[in-house]
Amino acid sequence: MKIMALDGNSLTYRAFFALPEDMRTAGGQTTNAVYGFCSMLLTLLREHKPDGVVVVFDRKEKNFRHEVAPEYKAQREKQPDSLYEQLELVREMLTAMGVATFDAAGYEGDDIIATIARLSCERGDDLLIVTGDRDAYQLVSDPHVRVLYNKRGVSDYALYDEAGIKERTGVAPELYAQYAALRGDPSDNLAGAAGVGEKTAAKLLNTYGSLGELFERVDEQTPKLRESLHESRERVLRNVDVMTLRTDAPIDISGDVVGPRPDAAAVLRMFDFLEFTTMRPRFEAAFAPFISALSAPRSADPAVRSGDSAAHAAATTPAVSGELEVVSVNDADGLRAHLGADATESLVLAAQWENEPGRSPLSCLAVLPLAAESRASGGSAMRVAVVDGRDVASVAAVLRAAGEIVAHDARVTLRGLLHLGVDVRNVGFDTAIAAYLVDASLGDYALSHVADRLLGAMPATSADSAAPPATTGTLFVETDVVAARERAAADAVTIARLVPVLRAALETEGVTALYRDIENPLIGVLARMEHVGIGVDVARLRGIGESLATQCAALTATLHAVAGRDFNLNSPTQLRTILFDERGLKGSKKTKQGYSTDAASLEKLRDEWPEFIDPLLRYREVEKLRSTYAEGLLHAVDADGRIHATFNQTVARTGRLSSDRPNLHNIPVRTEEGRLFREAFVPAAGCEFLVADYNQIELRCIAHLADDPGLIAAFVEGRDVHRSVASQVFDVEPDEVTSEQRSQAKMVSYGLAYGMEAYGLAQRLSIGVSEAAEILDAYFDAFPRVKQFMHDTVAEATRRGYTETLFGRRRPIPELQSDQRAVRLAGQRMAMNAGIQGLAADIFKVALIGIDERLAAGGLAARIVLQVHDEVIVEVPHAERAAVGPLVLDVMHGAANLRVPLEVNAAWGESWAAAKVA
């Protein structure tokens, strides 16, 4: 067995100082150390593939070493609180990952690793120690124990066996503690023998074999060395006692205790609240061996009976008992003939696309009457009808006959069918959305994952419709038609089995009405919005890109002139040479390649060389706009001159919608250059944009939920709420409020909507934590019911395990029950945020549904083309302007009945930008 033991404190410390400390969540939680540690762990697991892994930690209390040597580690400065907080987060993450962790009173983490090394050798296991502490060198023993030493940063390692330790230090591992004791260890504040460095210490020990023999023959040394050894004898021998690692820590690694037992859902929840948006695939890849080892044995595949000759083969899935056969149909009559008289009451759909829905042909559409699954559960045969996707008339005929449609992530199927000219508006149930409402913290709602969690089995041939293959060209060639039909049929059966389970779960969780009234009607709205897309002025977008490229070229010339030579601005290596070697600046943070040139590090150097640093930072800003947005958006424009992005209902735990492929929610708005991109988004010919967004909806939600008379009065009377808040917080008359005070009040108000506390506020206002705390205290003194609301929200969420919005949306927050203080605090911030953000999300969704329904009911050609946070963009023919404007405002104003009015900012324009500035 191959075990990997990690020094948790050492590696977290390395990660903290290797990555920028400005890595924070929206709520202000610093995440650089926990991100770096997770990254290191996942890389190590993937590269070294251990059978088991343990992580050890130091304890806070002192141990015997402090008694033997009072100066032991006394020189070390107290580390930042954010590092200690993240150590707790690291431990919580490891718990979710099912990784065994050890600590023990009176023992350091190194002692626990030494004990693991002894136990591993006794069992005949191989041990790989991962640490940034050289004390572990003494544990190396061929062939079973090696050390992977973290030299610096999060990815620079050296692997040592006995020969490697001898080459690195000059002594064998068994002499390392004596070697370190003789030369001293500044990192532990332990002095050795004066004048004895590494080479001398190694030479002496190799000559005499031990410290004992060296001190016995001290008179053989030169007078200076003899005097030093006499003077340091007691200290050096005491050092040996301190530096020798103990192997008797009270731990047990018997059996398979070190084999991780990951709770994938808990890990994804951690990634979600830490905002680790790219970590999930790395986790799945690194932990795949452990997850597969935990998978329960699957039941045997059902008996298979071939369908008609056109079907070629039958679908198989372990989620179905009895027989399953595939039949081909091409109209509603054929569907009824093959599947029964009630075949069109509720149809389960499962589509297979040749590439991406909405942009490529439909390979096939599997159709299963929902009632058929219950009939088959008794062991009778079940037939799944498959319609040839290229026969659009047949697809439309079958769907027109359906009473209602059941699907998994129906939006994807609906968008693809719209591309074929088939408009489905009778979605009755969506198993992906239902699973999300039952538990919004799971993170993954692909069909296979939902089925695995709720049915205990995954479709053996299923390809998740929620994640269409990101390939180009034809995915299914002629020989793959059978496989596509099998996958579609298997998916349809799995969806059918999920329906009763999820209907019952919605009732149990009390979210049936939320599903029925908001989430289900929204599916079609989003599918239609994706299908329509938003128009792009390609020439304008190219012009913006060319302008940015010109700026980049000018900044490059400036930087070359200041540096005195040409160099590659995008090369950290060349930048390091100019900044630190040629200019002689002192870097603040080292990576394995040298001093960091990231933005945070450059900001610290700004005053030392502003004529270079300022244009360099500006270049990076402009170049990102050029490459990410100017080029990125151009690549996303389809042949019809429009961008068809994706909008997701099951990503954000608060209920907010998200966007990707491309992310149109992330179009930059904070700089003038960023705002220019909105000029490139334009309506179709003969139309104009109506852009409408809620005014300060989060603050209005706070006022309503807290029932605070001061905030309510400000909104009801139509006052400048930020000026009103600042007036009360800073105890000045409204007309005496300064712009800085108003900005601070605005930051506090919006920060509360994200559960931000004093530390996060201090970071955003660039002030001290104590000053930020004073501002927060003044806010709560002025608006006491807001503070009480926050307190009650956390208390109720802790008691119930979830928060709940006025519309019934629940957000599980298991972090509130964590044993780790930092995790509990993060959970409390999430609880404060969830009710506010969730209510705002629900109100906006109600508005989107209402606008779509009213436009359709009025027979209007206007259509929703984009939503961004609390903003909706409607493409309106000029002739419909008089009808659509009041309609949209009426719907948005009436989306919810709060204690304060819902105000809407609305404007018209020939581009997104023009409407925003109108």
- Helical fraction: 40-55%
Structural class computed from helices and strand pairing? alpha/beta
For the largest beta-sheet, the strand count, sense and barrel status come to: 6 strands, mixed
Strand order of the biggest β-sheet: 3-2-1-4-5-6
Assembly type: single chain
Number of helices: 35
Rg from C-alpha positions? 32 Å
Overall 3D shape? globular
> Which CATH class of the largest domain?
Alpha Beta
Q: How many beta-strand elements?
A: 27
What does this structure look like?
The structure is a single chain. The protein has 918 residues and is of the alpha/beta class. The chain folds into five domains: 2-169 and 252-287, Rossmann fold; 309-532, Ribonuclease H-like superfamily/Ribonuclease H (Nucleotidyltransferase, domain 5); 536-630, Taq DNA Polymerase, Chain T, domain 4; 687-695 and 841-917, Alpha-Beta Plaits, CATH 3.30.70; 698-839, DNA polymerase, domain 1 (Orthogonal Bundle), CATH 1.10.150.20. The protein has 35 helices and 27 strands. The strands form eight sheets. It has a six-stranded mixed beta sheet, with helices on both faces. A six-stranded mixed beta sheet has the order 9-12-11-10-13-14. Strand 13 (404-407), helix 16 (410-419) and strand 14 form a beta-alpha-beta unit. Helix 7 (176-183) packs across helix 8 (198-208), helix 7 (176-183) packs across helix 10 and helix 32 packs across helix 33. The N and C termini lie far apart (69 Å).
Outline the secondary-structure elements.
Layout: E1 2-7, H1 8-18, H2 32-48, E2 52-56, H3 64-68, H4 81-97, E3 100-102, H5 109-123, E4 126-131, E5 145-152, E6 156-160, H6 162-169, H7 176-183, E7 184-185, E8 190-191, H8 198-208, H9 211-216, H10 223-243, H11 264-274, H12 280-294, E9 324-328, H13 332-339, E10 346-353, E11 362-369, H14 370-376, E12 382-388, H15 392-400, E13 404-407, H16 410-419, E14 427-430, H17 431-438, H18 447-455, H19 481-509, H20 512-532, E15 534-536, H21 538-563, H22 572-582, E16 590-591, E17 594-595, H23 599-605, H24 610-636, E18 642-643, E19 646-648, E20 658-660, H25 672-676, E21 681-682, E22 687-694, H26 697-706, H27 709-716, H28 721-729, H29 739-753, H30 758-765, H31 769-782, H32 784-800, E23 802-804, E24 810-812, H33 821-857, E25 863-868, E26 871-877, H34 881-893, E27 904-909, H35 912-917
Parallel strand pairs: 1-2, 1-4, 2-3, 4-5, 9-12, 10-13, 13-14
Antiparallel strand pairs: 5-6, 7-8, 10-11, 11-12, 15-18, 15-21, 16-17, 19-20, 22-26, 22-27, 23-24, 25-26
Helix pairs in contact: 1-2, 1-4, 2-4, 2-12, 4-11, 7-8, 7-10, 16-20, 17-19, 18-19, 20-33, 21-24, 26-32, 26-33, 28-29, 28-31, 29-30, 30-31, 31-32, 32-33, 33-34
